[in-house]
Specification:
Helix content: 40-55%
Number of domains: 1
Strand order of the largest sheet: 1-2-4-3-5-6-7-8
Mean pLDDT: 89
Radius of gyration: 19 Å
Low-confidence stretches: 4-35, 298-302
Shape: globular
Strand content: 15-25%
CATH superfamily: Alpha/Beta hydrolase fold, catalytic domain
CATH topology: Rossmann fold
């Protein structure tokens, strides 16, 4: 073996890891197909100066005072994109024809921004979207937050820790839907054996763990929240159950929804899987009479 062989092997390993991540990101950023092409889309609405501080708006152009689904993608607080098919396609196909507006947001990622700053980015995006909602046929008072994985953590954190969005968001949202959150109890995750990416997100400061932990942040002021969890993951539903039990004990309208779906499919199949979608829609309908009317009204493209 020559002296360069260990170097070449290390370089090859690093390249394979990079290629895997790059392939995932490119897949997330692929051009959307199918039903989305037939909807009105306004892309890359800026809510800050950074290139990641952008969101897309999906609407049919004919709604007025419509409920707004505000979507936050996942990706271990480091990768992911607002336009990924798994993030928006089935949700747009299901709810935009019913008269909903759907907004999907990007936010700054690790290492540029830690989860607390990411949550503030999402709050800023919500605030601007509320200000402009009427121009897309939406109602600023009828926002419903939806997040998947790391995005579910950010949504749950905003829902349970109102101080984070205080002074940024002026109109309360109706409720929040956390799709298989990666971290409802950050302290418990960090105190046990855990994946390395949690260290990259949450560091070593125990005080910071509590500050960004929805389980520890929740108070009776939290808005209604639905915690969807995958029964195929060992830690997902037990964590969701503890969170819902604590929130409910404080008087929060908190609901847990178990699904026999993979972590990815909990995001991808929402809007497409009939029983799963109906269960989520039951939660949405209970948030406000107008959302219930929208769900019970038009069920096909107008």
């Amino acid at each position: 073996m020559d002296g360069q062989e260990p170097y070449r092997r290390g370089l090859a390993l690093r390249w394979r890891k990079f290629a895997a991540v790059a392939g995932f990101v490119l897949a997330c950023q692929a051009v959307l197909a199918g039903p989305i092409r037939d909807r009105s889309v306004e892309r890359d609405v800026p809510y800050g100066s950074d290139a990641r501080q952008r969101f897309d708006v999906y609407a049919d152009g004919r709604t007025k005072d419509a409920p707004v689904l505000f979507m936050v993608h996942g990706g271990a607080w480091r990768i992911g994109d607002k336009a990924a098919n798994s993030v928006v396609e089935n949700k747009v196909a299901r709810w935009v024809p019913m008269g909903f507006v759907l907004i999907s947001a990007n936010y700054r990622m690790l290492p540029q921004a830690d989860p607390m700053l990411q949550a503030k980015d999402v709050a800023r995006a919500i605030a601007l979207a509320q200000d402009k909602a009427a121009s897309w046929g939406g109602d600023r008072r009828k926002f419903i937050l939806v997040g998947h994985s790391a995005g579910a953590h950010l949504v749950a954190l905003l829902a349970t820790a109102p101080a984070i969005s205080s002074g940024i968001v002026s109109t309360p949202w109706l409720g929040a839907i956390a799709l298989d959150s990666a971290a409802l109890d950050v302290v418990k995750i960090m105190e046990a054996k855990h994946a390395r990416f949690y260290d990259e997100a949450f560091g070593q400061d125990r005080g910071y763990w509590r500050a960004v932990s929805p389980y520890h942040a929740v108070t009776g002021e939290a808005r209604p929240i639905l915690a969807v969890c995958s029964t195929r993951r060992d830690d997902s539903c037990p964590q969701a159950r503890r969170f819902v039990e604590k929130a409910s004990s404080l008087g929060v309208k908190a609901t847990m929804l178990e699904q026999d779906l993979s972590h990815r499919d909990i995001n991808l199949r929402l809007g497409e899987d009939p029983r799963y979608t109906a269960a989520v829609e039951s939660f949405i309908a209970g948030l406000d009479p107008s959302t219930a009317r929208a769900l019970a009204g038009v069920s096909a493209p107008r």
